[in-house]
Design goal:
Dna Ligase, domain 1; five-stranded mixed beta sheet; five-stranded antiparallel beta sheet; 14 helices; binds magnesium ion; Alpha-Beta Plaits; DNA polymerase, domain 1
């Protein structure tokens, strides 16, 4: 290949590799339990006929079962369905193994959810042939280091957006490359909802503006896109992203952090609920420090169970920015005193007005610094000696109550104590 052609290929080339695990939770179960391999499997958050599937193996998808299908309906669609209870800790453990496996080929630039990550390509890696080879190597590394039941779809594209679109184009086990020369015609067969960032509401808005296909979306000018999205910036970035421009991602900033818990019957008393709340504060504070934020407000909410009627109460308080467990606990317990009488059914805490650590104006008062140091020492001890090594007396004996929860958008770090 001549040099000029190579330079052009690098400049116009493939900048991102996007990786999406296929039917992730179900595949992990099939990996860990060989008796489930090749069978229709649905993963559920709890074993109850009224709950919904949170993942379906490809064998189950063939029967029309998908995320969100109710278990009783899923059994009607497929009587031989294997219904298994989710094991969040195993999925997190395997997620970290996948990260390590991918890292043997390419550094992971960003983890977008428990089953999605993105790598940035550099230099010659951007040449299409080279990029495709890396995609194959990443898949191979996952099969070899993590397990052969773990299939993924890899998308390669000139920006993150198009790399994700490419990954969505072939499932399962796809490897799709989208080059600038493929645009826009290769996307014309997609539905608007196939594009990341277009959900049901946005789709409706596009319909109202007369846009019902990807081809029509491509015909809109920056100004027209800005009108649909109601924002000049969004109009600009959509126009350019659709055409392959590698625009900087808008930094996502967390505004609040919350933890809540439905109380098991034995904790539905004043003392029980207070102990669980203490535990939630402890947990939320550890998460706050782990993610590098300070909280400027604390809100509590309690839902009461009284016959058929559900009553709820909430209270909040602005505070001097805090990050340590003890300060947040003090405020929470002060708010708790305002709570009306009743039989609590669910308790929760929201840490709000978050300030990223880097934006915080220092110095803090000496007394505050001591509390932060104490809290960080507790995090370290809990990380090292186990989740129950150090805790506040108020949460004693609540360890069975608050279990690890999992969200697609957030991956609990296993190094963080499961408190
Ligand atoms: Mg996936």
């Amino acid at each position: 290949m001549c040099t000029i052609q190579r330079i052009l290929e690098v400049r116009m080339g493939i900048h991102y590799l996007f990786l999406d695990m296929n039917a992730f939770f179900a595949s992990v179960e099939q990996q860990l339990r060989p008796e489930l391999r090749g069978k229709p499997v649905a993963v559920v958050p709890m074993l109850a006929e009224t709950t919904c599937c949170i993942a379906a193996s490809y064998e189950a998808k063939r029967y029309g079962i998908k995320t969100g299908t109710q278990v009783q309906d899923a059994r009607l669609l497929c009587p031989k369905l294997e219904v298994v209870e989710a094991r969040p800790k195993e999925y997190i453990r395997i997620h970290h193994q996948i990260l390590r496996a991918v890292d043997t080929v390419l550094p992971v630039e960003a983890v977008l959810s428990i089953d999605e990550m993105v790598c940035k390509l550099m230099g010659r890696e951007k040449e299409p042939a080279h990029a495709r080879k890396l995609g194959e190597q990443v898949k191979e590394a996952i099969y070899r280091h993590v397990g052969d039941q773990l299939r993924c779809s890899v998308g390669l594209g000139p920006n993150r957006f198009l790399a994700k679109v490419a990954a969505e184009m072939h499932k399962p086990d796809g490897l799709t490359l989208l080059q600038l020369s493929d645009l826009p015609h290769r996307l014309y067969s997609l539905h608007l909802r196939d594009l990341p960032g277009i959900g049901p509401n946005m789709e409706q808005r596009l319909f109202k503006h007369g846009v019902t296909s990807v081809e029509q979306l491509y015909r809109l000018s920056v100004q027209q896109l800005a009108r649909v999205w109601g924002s000049q910036i969004h109009g600009f970035s959509w126009w350019h992203r659709l055409r392959g421009a590698d625009l900087p991602e808008a930094p996502t900033r967390r505004r609040s952090l919350s933890h809540s818990h439905v109380l098991p019957p034995v904790f539905r008393s004043e003392a029980g609920a207070r102990a669980v709340l203490t535990r939630l504060v402890h947990r939320a504070a550890a998460r706050l420090r782990h993610e590098g934020y300070w909280a400027g407000s604390v809100a509590l909410f309690v839902r009461f169970l009284e016959g058929a009627e559900k009553r709820s109460w909430e209270a909040h308080s602005r505070i001097q920015p805090s990050q340590d467990t003890l300060s947040l606990l003090r405020v929470s317990l002060q708010l708790w005193q305002q709570k009306p009488e009743g039989s609590p059914f669910k308790v929760g805490i929201v840490l709000g007005h978050l300030i990223p650590e880097l934006e915080l104006s220092w110095p803090l008062f000496e007394s505050d610094q001591k509390l932060v140091r104490l809290a960080r020492a507790m995090d370290q001890a809990n990380g090292k000696y186990g989740p129950q090594a150090l805790y506040f007396a108020g949460m004693h004996r609540t360890e069975q109550s608050a279990v690890t929860r999992i969200a697609f958008s957030r991956i609990p770090d296993l190094d963080l104590p499961d408190i």
